[in-house]
Specification:
The protein is mainly beta. It has no helices and 17 strands. Strand 12 and strand 13 form a beta hairpin.
Length: 171
């Protein structure tokens, strides 16, 4: 199942001037797998989002190159008669084209990004764009915490993304 993704007004926390917000747009492909009596697992098969910034160039969020124990940690649970709770758990790699005149960054999440929502339909309806340019449709998954990224295996956040969440809709 293919889903479009939007994460607007994401605030990167870097020790650099003139970094305001990033607007990520992208997609993910998930496969529904068996779970338990009241839930199914959502295995992410592919995931990539891009933003652009004058100082950083192209900024990419994507799945890590190697498999992760979190690959099928996302779930869709029955929450009530006509509602579900979707929880997205996603390890990520953050890549920047550059940092000013310097070489870009290639960082990995310390802990997977997490977002969730109570929804009435899965997959969510397609996304669109309103007259003011704002996204319409889809379902908004609320961020559960900022996303911390580190260099290599070092567990200290080098970069943090403060995000409200991600809007997703069926493609």
């Amino acid at each position: 199942m293919s889903l479009s993704l939007n994460a607007f007004n994401t605030h990167p926390i870097l020790n650099l001037p003139n970094i305001t917000t990033l607007d990520f747009v992208g997609s993910k492909v998930v496969r529904v797998e068996a779970g338990g009596a009241d839930f199914v697992r959502l295995r992410t098969l592919s995931f990539s989002m891009e933003a652009s910034h004058p100082l950083l160039g192209k900024v990419i969020l994507r799945m890590p190159d190697s498999p992760s124990p979190y690959d099928n940690a996302s779930t869709l649970r029955i929450a009530g008669p006509d509602t579900f709770t979707e929880t997205w758990v996603q390890p990520m790699t953050l890549i920047t084209e550059r940092v000013g005149d310097l070489e870009g960054l290639n960082l990995k999440t310390i802990e997977p990004a997490r977002a969730s929502a109570t929804i009435t339909q899965y997959p969510p309806p397609p996304q669109g764009t309103g007259p003011d340019g704002a996204p319409t449709g889809g379902a908004f998954l609320n961020a559960q915490a900022p996303i911390g990224f580190a260099v290599g295996g070092i567990g200290v956040a080098a970069v943090q993304l403060r995000w409200q969440g991600v809007n997703q809709g069926q493609i």
